[in-house]
Amino acid sequence: MTEFRVAALYKFTPLQADKALQDKLLSACQANGVMGTLLIASEGINGTIAGSHNAIEAVLDVIRSLPGCGDIEHKDSAASEQPFLRMKVRLKKEIVTLGVPGVDPSKAVGTYVEPEDWNDLISAEDVVTIDTRNDYEVRIGQFKGAVNPETTSFREFPEWFRKFRETRPNARIAMYCTGGIRCEKSTAFALTEGLDEVFHLKGGILKYLERIPEDDSLWDGDCFVFDRRVAVRHGLEEGDYTTCHACREPLAPEDLKSPLFVAGESCPHCHAERTGQQRQRYAERQRQEELAAARGERHVGAVYRTEGEDE
Asked: What is the structure's pLDDT at 293?
């Protein structure tokens, strides 16, 4: 069985993010059969790509040649099948969309905490642990005792954080996210708001699940990822979740047994919110996907974002 290498990467560094760079990265990915998403902006690069080991290495070499990217870090995991349907390189205003002008993680961010030191930090009585991800991600897994902002978009985080800080003005803050990029932005934002002690998990949940044995872990559940695997667990093994094609909520095996689940049309999370016309459109898309599968083809219908991309 072919195993695909999945590389999640980001780097905050000044870039000339233009069509020339977009074309350069897209050509490198296409030449090596790599799929996924790369976002480029004047503040840097962000994305997740998948392909063979050598193909990913070839694309990483191109990325490392970019200004300030020679030391770019990436997090590797594996997938039993290609987890993306296409390759996209997008020009953006931000590589992770917070929407607050003047926040620059290349100048100042919170204190990095290695996965091996994370448990001690978040177990301290004067530390509040905040999950910077969106509600649908938090629902399937989070660190024990962490605060869920219940956001639907990262753009909502600043307003939530300003209100929350009023309730715990003297607390030390520890933040985490999937791969680390949202925490780069959120801790940089927190510093601009006047906080002195703000920490974040280096490498994010993915690095924690890679390094920390399950018996020693404070993580509860699975970690949502932005591709067809849907979620991973300790050791970065693929989880048992699928995605609702109507609302893109992660679905556990028990969700599929609900009478409100109709493949390609609805799930327990969105059934009451969808009109008959919408369900009809989803049903047609599902039919086209099944026809494509019967022909041994892949129907490019699903859209997968990368972490922090505009929701």
From this structure: 59
φ and ψ of 89, to 5 deg: -125, 115
Element (H, E) at 211: helix 204-211
259: Cα separation from own chain's centroid:
30
3-state secondary structure of 76: strand
The C-alpha atoms of residue 14 and residue 4 are separated, in whole angstroms, by 31
User: Average pLDDT, whole number, for the chain?
Assistant: 91
Closest CA to 73 of 17, 112, 16, 99: 112
Instruction: Round to whole Å and give the CA distance between 175 and 161.
Output: 11
Q: Which of 35, 26, 89 is nearest to 62 (CA)?
A: 26
User: Is the Cα dihedral 250, 253, 258, 262 positive or negative?
Assistant: positive
Whole-angstrom Cα distance, residue 88 to residue 91? 10
Bridge partner residues of 172 (DSSP) = 127
DSSP 8-state symbol, 2: -
Question: What is the pTM assigned to this prediction?
Answer: 0.88
Residues facing 224 on adjacent strands: 231
CB atoms within 10 A of CB 74: 19
Instruction: Give the angle subtended at the CA of 38 by the CAs of 33 and 43, to the nearest 5°.
Output: 150
Sheet of 74-79: strand order equals: 74-79, 4-12, 44-51, 35-41, 87-91
Q: Tell me the one-letter amino acid at 95.
A: I
DSSP string, 241-254: -EE-TTT--EE-TT
Catalytic residue among 29, 177, 223, 244: 177
Where are the extended beta strands (E) located within 54-166? 74-79, 87-91, 111-113, 127-131, 141-143
Instruction: Tell me how far CA of residue 84 lies from CA of 105, 229, 238, 252, 291, in angstroms.
Output: 29, 9, 15, 20, 19
CA-to-CA distance for 255 and 238, rounded, in angstroms? 18
Please say whether the beta carbons of 89 and 24 come within 8 A: no
**Is 183 noted as a catalytic residue in this protein?**
no
Q: In the chain, what percentage of residues exceed pLDDT 70?
A: 92
